């Protein structure tokens, strides 16, 4: 986990806001820590930072980077981070039940026609017959933690195929990649910039698409502490406005491709500061472009998908049957889609 900060007021630049803003920002140098993973799917925050959208809202942002969703949720609950993007997990719901966290919007989504998350097999498993998700019976499916988004995806895929799989918690994405490469686990599902990069290098095999099993899946959400959601409305709305402008720019450049070739290249170079930063641009560019999935406009939240995820967690005994979406979500900030 590490941090990265940038200060100083930058001029307001283009992009549609989730919420109206008139005149000067109401906040001034409001310090804020934003949790993130070094994934293309977190690009809206990176764009908002680099293009001055946070600064224009009066927000002095510092990033804190994590290697899995659940530790990020704990950081929000403890006050070590103020806002973040993460998948819905059993841990996040449990923290919401304790009054510690609230989902305030949606981020990454599976969308028909957009190349999304991939289902992967290790080379060893593929050679032994795991050439499609239908052959997952009895295989080891990698997850970070029990109740994570990886667990949810694996369960939905297995249910659709009518097979039983074994889940292997490995805590961190890096550990999963190493285990998949070495054949210690058989299968996994992950965002395309990682999946295609691994497959292109010959380290794994792509055997399916998550969207075929979970259409319109709300992959990640925007969330904060329950205290921020309830008591820091101006700051929370300012964060969402800046985040939404970053999402608009990202979608235009790499998803809808309406920003032109130069706009797409500029966006890839911006994201490269955070994603695959340890690789030369020439080696990182293709993977970043491959990772472009829709980030919801105005942080809209797909409540049908949220309800499905909560229902699965209840069926697995991961959360209490009494928990409703109201426990997890504050619907007053972003539109429901």
Automatic annotation (TrEMBL):
GO biological process: one example: alkanesulfonate transmembrane transport
Subcellular location per the Swiss-Prot or TrEMBL entry: Periplasm
Keyword Signal in record: yes
One family name in Pfam for this protein: NMT1
Family: Belongs to the bacterial solute-binding protein SsuA/TauA family.
GO cellular component: periplasmic space
Protein name (database record): ABC transporter substrate-binding protein
Lineage: Bacteria, Pseudomonadati, Pseudomonadota, Alphaproteobacteria, Rhodobacterales
Keywords noted in UniProt: Signal
SUPFAM superfamilies: Periplasmic binding protein-like II
Primary subcellular site in the record, as a coarse category: periplasm
Leader sequence segment: 1-28
Segments forming domain SsuA/THI5-like: 40-249
